[in-house]
Amino acid sequence: MTQNTPKTTPKPTLYQSISDHLLEMIRDGHFPVGSKLPTEMELCDQFGVGRHTAREAVRKLTDLGVVERRRRAGTTVVRQHPRAQFGVELETTNQLQRYLEATDLHVNKIVMDLAKMPRETALEGVPSDWFKVETYRCVPGTKRAISWTDIYLRKEYQSIAEHISTKPGGVYPLLETQCGEVVEVIEMEISASRFPPRVGRFLQYEAADPALLIIRSFRNPAGKLLEVAVSFYPPYEFRYATRLSRRDGQHKTRS
């Protein structure tokens, strides 16, 4: 006779336990919004742990959006409850467009003369063929940047630069409405990375913090590369899902 073994709940890690304890104190008002959390060394003394464990506990709170870390300014409580994670499921270009329309796009600056090709992606041609638009996205109604994207466009499309932050959605619809192009294929690569220093500073993360790197390449029916978007996301705030299905809709087996 088979005996069923009761399922046990995995024991939380030490840093998770500390993070949960601090989160409960924030919810109870012990650390109100605007106040400072104890320093890493103070947390080490309070909980009897090493500095790495204390740092991971604070990082977890940062990922939840309840605190923000700034260099030489300490860790500040910015909200009492964790923010909702921002997720998107992608199956078609229309779904990508709906995601782009659900967030506000802002332009940081435009770089017309590239000194060299970006190492994250292989652009076609030479640097003088392209220009870069540095952008970031915010949830509507807030000023906090939730992601960063370097958009590379061919210089023949530079007329759309002034419209990028004035139209809802992404940049590639402008290629179609303003330049007469047709985006037929969007290639996407997702990988683990770290924030470049300039991006980390802007999003208020450390340069060594992990990031979700997504590179999208936009091509017309002839295969011409029109745009490349290199995006960095906080890994615990975003969820990407895809759905794969057979083209013929049938399941075939070998006999």
TrEMBL record:
Q: Keywords on this record? A: DNA-binding, Transcription, Transcription regulation
Could you state one GO biological process linked to this protein? negative regulation of DNA-templated transcription
What is the phylogenetic placement of the source species in the record? Bacteria, Pseudomonadati, Pseudomonadota, Betaproteobacteria, Burkholderiales
Which InterPro entries did the record assign? Bact_HTH_transcr_reg, Chorismate_lyase_/UTRA_dom_sf, Tscrpt_reg_HTH_GntR, UTRA, WH-like_DNA-bd_sf, WH_DNA-bd_sf
Q: Which residues form the HTH gntR-type domain?
A: 12-80
What is this protein identified as?
GntR family transcriptional regulator
> Molecular function terms in GO for this entry?
DNA binding; DNA-binding transcription factor activity
Q: Which PROSITE patterns match?
A: HTH_GNTR
- Organism encoding this protein: Bordetella genomosp. 12
Question: Gene3D superfamilies recorded for this chain?
Answer: Chorismate lyase-like, Winged helix-like DNA-binding domain superfamily/Winged helix DNA-binding domain
Keyword Transcription listed: yes
The record's section on SUPFAM superfamilies has: Chorismate lyase-like, Winged helix' DNA-binding domain
| UniProt-listed SMART domains | HTH_GNTR (SM00345), UTRA (SM00866)
Xref: Pfam families: GntR (PF00392), UTRA (PF07702)
